[in-house]
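User: Predict Maternal effect embryo arrest 60's structure from this.
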Amino acid sequence: MAENGGGTSISMTALDGIVNVNSLFTLASFLGLAWTPSDGSTTISDPECAAGDRAESDLVSFHVLAFACFLFSSLVALCLKQAIRTVPRPGRASTARINRLALRGGIIACATSSVFACFFLMLALVNLVQVRLGRISCSGAALGAVVPLITLVPAGLFIYAAIVLYTFAHTH
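Assistant:
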């Protein structure tokens, strides 16, 4: 099925956006992995509020999961971009013959992986707050840091997913 040049251009722009944003978040995940949770830098005054080894372990696990999801999303997006560029263009240079179903599936896979990656990064940040400021249940500072995080990130992810789904439902 042939896709017009405008559709291909829109797909390329969407894929560029995914790669650019994922690159920033992949860097954040990588830097989070480079940080050592038990380096002694904490503001916890009450030892009873210390997060413990579980939070440190979860912090690393969620960073690794976020990193893997961002990397997967970026690699799929780059592969799709390469496929669009290398598809033979019969006739006019502005028309590319691509498998529209594969392109749409790939973009959905990228978006889904990015959503999961953002969710895992949010969970890693929740654990980072607990390691640095103490458990959420006994630290007002930790609760104050986590509430906006667990409110705004899922709201943003919901809006992102809704727009992606709306766009796919209303494009041919």
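The chain has a mean pLDDT of 81.
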